[in-house]
Write a structure and sequence with these properties.
The structure is a homodimer of 486-residue chains. Chain A has a three-stranded mixed β-sheet. In chain A, β2 and β3 form a beta hairpin. With 486 residues, chain A is mostly helical. Chain A is built from 19 helices and three strands. Chain A has two domains: 142 residues, no CATH class; 320 residues, Neurolysin, domain 3 (Orthogonal Bundle). The longest helix of chain A has 28 residues. At the A-B interface, α1, α2 and β1 of A face α1, α2 and β1 of B.
């Protein structure tokens, strides 16, 4: 009875969070410009309610739960919820509401600033947000540094020192592996109007398994995936009319996120049974489809056929080897979301260093543009022409997502390990990919990743799924085999 | 201090209602199909919260307000709120939530039923909704019949007998005035693709005063205007590629609604100071732009120029007299929103009679299709080929809006009186309309209608604005002058 009450309570929070997701999706897609101030208020009202329900009210309800009498799944759920509650109780409602409201305003001003290359327009909102997130880190507590408290939101228990230990060495090795052999011909480089690109993308992601009765795709300033509910997962993309790849690979990335959300358990909503595990697992899914599958030669053969089928005006006799070459060409570039699989992690490293320094109060928001450009120059050997192509490119900081970036690298390592495991598990993996038969992959992911919800830690799910703990070498092996090919 | 608390509380309710509007807008425009069940839950959660805030909590806050010490506007606001509170307290939270959830589900099934001419699919949801609305009417109480309790939502104090007294005689007179002289040539009848029609509409409504930084226009199954907040008012339309009028005049109608919402006071949000007065005033604004302005000869001259300017591929040397003839051609038709200004009110009369009989439990939902067709045949002399063109055509019942329809007729009478008043007030009214100079109309409406909020009753606003109480003859005079022309 008290368990029923708990689950009903969590479902109510789930619906409120769904609403918050819709408010956010709308803000990034269709909201009229001058609605932004009220949108921040709307999000604040929901944030306040959610905070109250998941602290004060939840604590009362949890008191009556006889945890030692519960069956396994229920016990795992209640344990996670208790862990969450302790964390949530540390954050005052006022702070939670303020972070939500300022994030909403900051995103609006970031978008404007990005469009007009106007960092100073965005800076005051970012400063405010950084100081609120520092306050949050202090409320949460930490061992080594405030930034670690925020990292924990996206990957439970992850510390800056883990990033330095696991990811940095890989990044350093990758740094040696840059290849500059530019492909002779890029089939993606031709004029295709926005509407035709979007129509193509909408057909293509259905082939990957995206279900339009439970989701949709729109345009936005920065591509994202937003799970409004388990039956309403929306992704966005953006389009360059002279480069189909720009849209396509960001769309595939977001489709990977969406497939995860659409594949979660659809009972016990609002509990860890039906929630995504972590951002690391989330990014492992998006990066898996974008890179491990999406940039493989068998996939290029499949893609070549689909380009000819869906865009016959623009594609005939597509050479899949040319696609493969273009998609795996390693060259430092300015924009993270467009970068190749190798230099991508240099982008992550520089963001990690900057946001860590910001939250640990070693640098200030004013220092960001110059430090950004300096790091891009050091790591990638190129210089952003302006802040739009530099510090303003990503949505994350404006949304208050400090500590998110490392999960892209970690997720990529997870993805590589999952990919190599699947390759060994299914001898005809490449053959099926070439045919566009992804059903067996969906099924395996559903059983081994999606259905686990948030009942286990990321590393537990990885180990259960692949039989091994995380091996960063898996990623290096995977990437080396490709780079050699180029 | 207690007044500040009241206003803050009402503003919180305002933001929650805004969220509810967005959920509803999204459901009708972009929501993926299978999201509908969760959408109903989301709407239910908000409805429950709003109900609690505007009953239990509001009652507590109002106790501390020294009403006799307040200045005029504050006193008017508090008096209205006290009146509302008494009404709201009569409805149990459970019922409010259930009506919201069932409406959301009913709308989904109505849309499907309409598309597939499948009334039985919709019938169980409508039956459920009707019984919930009867329950609501019984909670609210009434003098003559349950239906009157619902009429009051849309026009305070309106009774069925008023409709019979004011509107029916006009309808009967109109019934004699049907004209069947079909225009020789209809310039709207040509193929214009959806995208071009929408682009034209978006340009054209800006000329009427619609501000795209504070609103937008999308496509939906049934056109509507939805004020998410005072700075975020969204309208929708629908398109026939072979008849521009079908889209255009519904768009102008919704623009009229939107101009009202966008022109409301933007302080003291959530109080009657910044709320629309009633559905009657609302419909007076939409019908004013759609008909009194929109079907006038000077407007046709303006429209002719704009068609040539914005759609040069399709329009040149447009004859405004031809437009006028087409727009004022009186002929019974099946669809209310496409009907002329005369037979329109026969559509309203039949809906009034049916919904009154439903709520007063004189007929059942199963009887509706046959009764609908019978009345259409009696009043209009034509027969719907199926339910899609009959009982399924309007969204209102699926949204639980029983008692709304009479305000269309009443609003039209208000609009005619306002129009004739403006004609006498501004001798160059027609000249300015022809030029597309609507600024003086906006200003007059702002001062005399919009800015009054909900501090007065509809009839008080009309009388203050035009110097006269409602005269149904104004509408008859207005319409007769036009029909004679045909």
């Amino acid at each position: 009875m008290s368990l029923t009450k708990l689950y009903q309570h969590l479902e109510k929070i789930y619906h409120l969070n769904s609403i918050s997701s819709l408010l956010s999706w709308d803000q990034e897609t269709y909201m009229p410009e001058k609605a932004y101030a009220h949108r921040a208020k709307q999000m604040g009202v929901i944030a306040g309610l959610v905070h109250y329900y998941k602290t004060v009210e939840l604590r009362e309800i949890l008191k009556d739960i006889p945890i030692h009498e519960l069956h396994e799944t229920d016990r795992l759920i209640v344990q996670k919820i208790q862990y969450d509650l302790e964390k949530w109780l540390k954050i005052p409602e006022k702070l939670a509401v303020e972070i939500t409201e300022v994030s909403s305003q900051a995103q609006y001003h970031w978008d404007k600033a990005k469009k007009n290359n106007d960092f100073p327009l965005f800076a005051p909102y970012l400063s405010k947000l950084v100081s609120l997130k520092i306050e949050e880190a202090n409320c949460l507590g930490y061992e080594d540094c405030p930034y670690d408290a925020l990292l924990d939101h996206y990957e439970n228990g992850l510390k800056s020192s883990d990033f330095e230990r696991i990811i940095k060495p890989v990044v350093q090795q990758l740094y040696q592996k840059q290849s500059y052999e530019k492909p002779q011909h890029n089939p993606f480089h031709q004029f295709i109007p926005v509407a035709e690109q979007l129509a193509f993308a909408n057909q293509f992601i259905q082939d990957l398994g995206f279900d339009f009765t439970r989701g949709r795709q729109d345009l936005s300033s920065h591509p994202f995936s937003n799970a409004i509910s388990v039956h309403d997962v929306r992704i966005t993309t953006r389009i360059h009319e002279n480069d189909l790849q720009y849209m396509l690979y960001s769309t595939i990335h977001e489709t990977g996120h969406a497939l995860y959300e659409l594949g979660l358990n659809d009972t016990l909503l609002g509990t860890p049974f039906s929630e995504p595990c972590s951002l690391t697992i989330h990014e492992s899914q998006s990066r898996f489809w974008e890179n491990n599958i999406g940039r493989s030669l068998p996939f290029c053969k499949f893609l070549a056929r689909k380009l000819e089928e869906y865009l016959p005006k623009y594609f005939h006799n597509v050479n899949p080897y040319e696609l493969f070459e273009v998609l795996n060409f390693v060259k430092p570039s300015l924009i993270r979301t467009e970068s190749d699989e190798v230099t991508y992690h240099l982008h992550i490293a520089l963001r990690f260093e900057l946001e860590k320094a910001l939250i640990n109060q070693e640098i200030s928001v004013q220092d960001l543009p110059a430090l950004w450009n300096e790091k891009v120059s050091n790591y990638l050997g190129i210089t952003p022409p302006n802040d739009t192509f530099g510090v303003l490119q990503d949505v994350h900081w404006s949304a208050g997502l400090f500590g998110y970036f490392p999960t892209y690298s970690l997720g990529s390592f997870y993805a590589a390990q999952i990919y190599l495991h699947l390759q060994s598990l299914f001898p005809d993996f490449d053959e099926q990919t070439e045919k566009g038969n992804f059903g067996f992959i969906h099924q395996w992911l559903k059983e081994n990743i999606y259905s686990k919800g948030r009942l286990y830690f990321s590393h537990e799910i990885l180990e259960q799924a692949t039989g091994k703990p995380l091996e960063a070498n898996a990623f290096l092996n995977y990437i080396s085999s490709k780079i050699t090919w180029v």
